[in-house]
Amino acid sequence: MQADDIIDRQRLRRKVTFWRIVAILIAVLGVVWAATYFTNNDETGGFTYNHIAKVKINGTIFEDEDLLERLEDIEENDFVKGVILSIDSPGGTTVGGEAIFEAVRKIAEKKPVVAQVGTLAASAGYMIASATDQIVARKSSIVGSIGVIFQYPNFEGLLDNLGVDMRSIKSSPLKAEPNFYGNTPPEAEAMIERMILDSYDWFKGIVTERRGFDPQETAQLADGSVFTGRQALENGLVDQLGGEDVARNWLTEQGLDEELDTKLWKKKPERSNFLIPGAAVTWIMKQIGLESLSQPIAEQFERRLMLDGLLSIWHVQSADQNE
Question: Which residue spans traverse the membrane (predicted)?
């Protein structure tokens, strides 16, 4: 054979080898994609046998469409005989808490629902817990913070230092008030206060109705205070102390078979526009030992979020915020 023919053949072999490797990788990724797409029973709630559904409500509360859809599926699923809401939240937007509260109440009309509080069920987190028919908390859980808050910054001093003069032309005095660029007029503060007090009265009404308090009892507890689980039990904000075993025992007392499995209904994996969906990426990260990186990043992002609207949230001011 001529030298050129040998070189051409070697080049052809290298090309064939390269495309074989590419084809194998595509096939492997396709298998992973299919596996994560079609075998999500433990993530999307596709259980076909009687069980107790467990739903985690963690972190800052928003009007979470995925969570609301999951709760609706639980309501309509005949295989779900009871529900445990595992709550660990400082609260969040009042609208988010309202939406989840209503979804939980719809479930409770059909099947028993119990809340099991972890570290924290404050503000909108407690609002959601009160939607259940039984609240179980740890002795050292933090419970309460019944109230509403509206916060906004004032950048007037910063803009003055930068030499920026912000001006606006408005159709009426209260349009776009309060703004971030100057002192809030008394009329705007009064408007915001009316909104807060209206939402606060609504929140207190929920607690009064769900916990069987009279309005005076609610008023004493709804001053924004937080309580330990033991204190919350004494003042009637929770029903029992303990963990998930106590919550399950209550469900058994409601007539559920004590042999029923508890199955966690997770958030549905996101379907991305790439070959590999989010669940597959998570699976790959797990195989290479990097799965633990995703949660801290998500938590840091959540702490930085700016929440719009009225808030029902409990937050301890950190040292760096005092500086």
Answer: 18-38
Q: Quick one: pLDDT at residue 272? A: 46
CB contact at 8 A, 47 and 79: yes
CA torsion, points 171, 172, 176, 177, in degrees to nearest 10? Answer: 160
> Known catalytic residue: 140?
no
Return the DSSP state at 150: -
Question: Does residue 139 have an active-site annotation?
Answer: no
How do residues 72-121 score in pLDDT, each as one tens digit?
999 999 999 999 999 999 999 999 999 999 999 999 999 999 999 999 99
In-domain check, residue 28: no
Picking from 195, 189, 194, the residue whose alpha carbon sits closest to that of residue 154 is 189
Out of 175, 272, 286, 294, the active site residue is: 175
Nearest to 300 by CA among 55, 63, 60: 60
Say what the pLDDT of residue 267 is. Answer: 80
**Same domain flag for 183 and 251:** no
pLDDT in tens, 211-227: 999 999 999 999 999 99
Same domain for 141 and 252: yes
DSSP string, 26-85: HHHHHHHHHHHHH--HHHH----S-EEEEEEEESSB---HHHHHHHHHHHH-TTEEEEEE
Could you give the 3-state DSSP secondary structure of residue 92? Answer: strand
Give the CATH number of the domain where residue 229 resides: 3.90.226.10
Count of structural domains within the chain: 2
Over residues 177-203, mean pLDDT: 90
pLDDT tens string 14-46? 777 878 888 888 887 777 666 655 544 444 456
pTM: 0.73
In this structure, are 53 and 194 located in the same domain?
no
Which of 123, 141, 199, 312 is the catalytic position? 123
Specify if 53 maps to a domain: yes
Distance of CA 308 to the CA centre of its chain: 16
Query: 47 and 195 in one domain?
Result: no
Q: Is 173 strand, coil or helix?
A: coil
Q: Is the dihedral of CA 6, 7, 11, 14 positive or negative?
A: positive
